[in-house]
Specification:
The structure holds 2 protein chains of 2 kinds. Chain A has 3 domains: 40 residues, no CATH class; 122 residues, Jelly Rolls; 74 residues, Phage tail protein beta-alpha-beta fold. Helices cover 27% and strands 35% of the residues of chain A. In chain A, strands 2, 3, 4, 5, 6, 7, 8, 9, 10, 11, 12, 13 and 14 form a 13-stranded mixed beta sheet that branches. In chain A, strands 16-19-18 form a 3-stranded mixed beta sheet, with helices on one face. The longest helix of chain A is centred in the N-terminal third of the chain and has 22 residues. Chain B folds into 2 domains: 70 residues; 68 residues, Arc Repressor Mutant, subunit A, CATH 1.10.10.10. In chain B, helix 1 packs parallel to helix 3 and helix 5 packs across helix 7. Classes of the chains: A alpha+beta, B mainly alpha. The interface between A and B is large, with 72 and 79 residues.
C-alpha cells in the first residue's frame, strides 16, 4: 500500500501545495502513480473562469440599493468630552455587535472510546460514537437545521422544517425521524430507523424508509439493503456491529473504540463481514472479530498494537 | 449613533470598496459550488443586498465573512429546490501556441475529461480543489473562508486528487 492511500492521509494535499521535502517530492513524482498525478495537476494549471466585470456589477447594484437609508448628514462641532463619550459608546456598540453577529459554531468532539449525547435547540438529540464530531450554529437554528458530521452518530430528530446533515460524501435530509450515519474514510452508511430519510449528493439521491440501509462510496451508491432493526443502533449500548463490513472497517472501528494501532497487508481482501464486538473488554473484542474472520494475528495489549499475519 | 465620520459599511465608498474586493472571489466560489454562472451572480448580488441592509451591524473587517455566510445560507436553501447535477462549470483554458496539433488535440481531450471529473466531485471537495487551483488560495485561507479546520481542507484536497486520478489513469 502506498502511504498516500492510507486512512486519513493528506499526502496529496501536501504534495499539491509544495510542502514535501525535495527528496519526497522527486521520489513521488518519478513513480508511475506520481506521474499520473503530475499530469493531472498540470491539466488544471491553466484552468480559469471568465472574470467577473466587477465595475459593471457594481453599477447594477448601486441604483437598486443606494437610494435607501440615506439620511442627510449635518456637520456640527462637539466638545472633546462629548466626542470621547461618543467614541467610547461607538466602541462598545461595535464590540456588542461583533459578539452578536460573529459566527458562533458549537462543536462537539469525542475521542477514542468515548460517546456522548448532545441535545440540539428544539429538542433533537444526536448521540456521537467514538472519534466523531459535529458542528452546528445554534444562533441560526431557526433559519435552517444544519449539522456537519465527521464519524458516526445516531440522530433522533424532532419534527419540524428540513434537518440536513452534511458529510464529505453527501447530505442527509429529513423532516423528523431517527437514523444512523457512519462516515469513516470514504464510506458513508446511513440507516433509517423511523420516518423517511433522503441521502443525496451531485450524482445520486436515495430515499430510505425504516430498515433500509444505503452505502455510498466515492460519490456513488455502492449498495442498498434492508435489516431487522433494534430500537437504537447497538453501538449506543456498547456493542459495535458490522454489516457487510471490510477488514479495514473492522480495524478502523477497533482503533476508534480502543485506540489500537494496526498493521496489515492491503491485499488481504476481506469483505462482507457480519459480526460484532463489545467495547467493555479490548482483548476480548480483538479476539472475537479476528476469530470470526478466521484471521491469524498477534496482539500486544500493552502497546495496543495489532498485526495481521494472514488468513487461517 | 450619528457619527458621520465613522467609516462603517454604510458609507457608500466603504461599501463600494468591499463590493469590489469581495465580489470576484464570492462569485467564483458560488460557481464552484453551484456550477451555474447566472444563478451564482444573482446570489452574489443578493448577498451584497443583505450586507447593505445590515450595514450598521457589520464591522468592516467582518464584511467578507458576513457575505460568504449569507451566500452559504442562500445556497443551502436553494439547493433543496434546484438540482445541480446536470450543470457544468463554465471553465476556460488559456490556449497554448507553438505545439504540435496532434499533441494539442490529445492534450485537450485529457483536459476535458479532467474538467468533467471535477464537475462530478462532491461539492465540498470541488470547492476546496478549485479555490486552491484557480483562486490560488492557501489551505489556511480556504479553511478561514469555509470556517472549517485546515486539516479538513487538506483531507478534502487529498480525496479530490484521489478521485481525479481514478479518471486520469483510465485515459
Amino acid at each position: 500500500m502506498n502511504h498516500w492511500e492510507e486512512e486519513n492521509s493528506v499526502f496529496l494535499a501536501k504534495w499539491a501545495n509544495n510542502e514535501l521535502t525535495d527528496q519526497e517530492r522527486s521520489e513521488f513524482e518519478n513513480s508511475e502513480e506520481g506521474k499520473t498525478f503530475l499530469k493531472l495537476i498540470k491539466a488544471t494549471d491553466n484552468l480559469q473562469l471568465s472574470p467577473l466585470n466587477v465595475d459593471q456589477a457594481f453599477e447594477e447594484f448601486k441604483p437598486r440599493h443606494f437610494t435607501k437609508h440615506q439620511k442627510p448628514t449635518k456637520v456640527f462641532r462637539l466638545s472633546p468630552v462629548v466626542r470621547m463619550a461618543i467614541a467610547a459608546s461607538v466602541l462598545a456598540i461595535f464590540t456588542i455587535t461583533y459578539l452578536i453577529t460573529r459566527p458562533d459554531y458549537t462543536v462537539v468532539t469525542t475521542g477514542f472510546g468515548e460517546s456522548q449525547a448532545v441535545t440540539l435547540p428544539g429538542g433533537s438529540v444526536i448521540t456521537l460514537n467514538a472519534n466523531s464530531s459535529i458542528k452546528y450554529e445554534a444562533d441560526e437554528w431557526e433559519e435552517g437545521r444544519n449539522v456537519e458530521l465527521e464519524g458516526e452518530a445516531f440522530f433522533d430528530v424532532v419534527k419540524g422544517n428540513d434537518f440536513v446533515v452534511h458529510t464529505d460524501e453527501g447530505n442527509i435530509k429529513v423532516l423528523g425521524t431517527s437514523f444512523n450515519i457512519r462516515t469513516r474514510d470514504d464510506d458513508l452508511d446511513v440507516v433509517c430507523y423511523t420516518g423517511k430519510v433522503n441521502v443525496s449528493d451531485n450524482n445520486y439521491s436515495v430515499d430510505l424508509t425504516p430498515g433500509n440501509l444505503v452505502r455510498v462510496h466515492d460519490g456513488k451508491v455502492l449498495r442498498e439493503w434492508t435489516k431487522t432493526l433494534t430500537q437504537q443502533p447497538l453501538w449506543i449500548s456498547g456493542t459495535i456491529e458490522f454489516d457487510n463490513a471490510s477488514l479495514t472497517t473492522v480495524l478502523e472501528e477497533l482503533k476508534n473504540q480502543f485506540n489500537i494501532n494496526y498493521e496489515y497487508d492491503q491485499n488481504l481482501a476481506i469483505d462482507g463481514f457480519v459480526g460484532a464486538f463489545s467495547i467493555t473488554n479490548m482483548e476480548n473484542a480483538v479476539q472475537t472479530v479476528m476469530t470470526a474472520m478466521d484471521i491469524r494475528y498477534t496482539f500486544d495489549a500493552g502497546q495496543k498494537r495489532l498485526v495481521i499475519l494472514g488468513m487461517n | 449613533m450619528s457619527n458621520s465620520e465613522a467609516p462603517d459599511v454604510c458609507n457608500e465608498k466603504v461599501f463600494e470598496f468591499h463590493f469590489k474586493s469581495i465580489a470576484p472571489l464570492l462569485r467564483n466560489w458560488l460557481i464552484f459550488k453551484f456550477k451555474d454562472e447566472e444563478t451564482s451572480e444573482d446570489m452574489m448580488m443578493e448577498a451584497f443586498s443583505v450586507l447593505w441592509e445590515k450595514c450598521k451591524e457589520v464591522l468592516p473587517h467582518q464584511a467578507k465573512a458576513f457575505v460568504f455566510r449569507v451566500a452559504q445560507n442562500q445556497f443551502l436553501s436553494r439547493i433543496k429546490k434546484e438540482k445541480t447535477a446536470q450543470s457544468h462549470i463554465p471553465f476556460i483554458s488559456k490556449t497554448k501556441d507553438n505545439e504540435d496539433p496532434g499533441y494539442i488535440m490529445e492534450y485537450n481531450e485529457f483536459e476535458n475529461t479532467i474538467q468533467d471529473a471535477i464537475n462530478q466531485l462532491p461539492e465540498g471537495q470541488r470547492e476546496v480543489f478549485l479555490l486552491n487551483r484557480i483562486e490560488k488560495k492557501t489551505y489556511s485561507e480556504i479553511a478561514e473562508l469555509l470556517e472549517v479546520s485546515v486539516k479538513a481542507v487538506e483531507k478534502r484536497m487529498h480525496k479530490a486528487l484521489l478521485k481525479l486520478r481514478e479518471v486520469a489513469k483510465n485515459i
